[in-house]
Write a structure and sequence with these properties.
Elements: H1 2-15, E1 20-24, H2 29-38, H3 44-48, E2 52-56, H4 70-75, H5 78-81, E3 85-88, H6 102-116, E4 121-124, H7 133-142, E5 145-154, E6 157-167, E7 177-183, E8 187-191
Parallel strand pairs: 1-2, 1-3, 3-4
Antiparallel strand pairs: 5-6, 6-7, 7-8
Helix pairs in contact: 6-7
Length: about 200
Amino acid sequence: GKSILSQRCTYGLLQNQRTVSYISTELSVNAFLKQMESVNYHVKQDFLQEDLKFISIFTPMGKVELSGDLVRTILESKQIMDNDVVIFDTLSDFLVSRERSFNDNFSLLNEFKQHTMQDTTIMCCVDPETINDELKQMLTNAAEVYITMQEIEEYGQTVNRISIQRFNAAQDNLDKELSFHVRPNVGIVVEIAST
């Protein structure tokens, strides 16, 4: 559910006149646009107007060389980082080497914080198995909003569950857990249970 949640956030932000840079370690540009269309998240015009900048590590334009710190190259790019929100659909070892020291991890966290202090929101989706444990813990501890996602069995059906672990400066009371599923031509559908 990480990708669809990232995509729903992207669509919602664009609908509210925010600019987004979306970094994908999974999809090509064409696959991303097709996937967005399949759930009625129409973003082609935003992409053409550069309100949405989509960066993929997969490109037909040439060879991509993965370095241990591709994330640093992204963070140094003014063109990417000048948008309101920057979304990493999966902050994995494609972007950040697992062989990082404590100081390297802290330095990267500091770079993230420098950008957020300049009013850029950074959203990182992380698969815990694909990232350095120490960096994952640092990001978890420093995050203003921290949610976990899992698939669970509920009433004989597989359900996607979002659990809100932390939400600093929430404007109102929050439901700590939300169940959702994905429907073609609709996108994310939040399950609302009545009591």
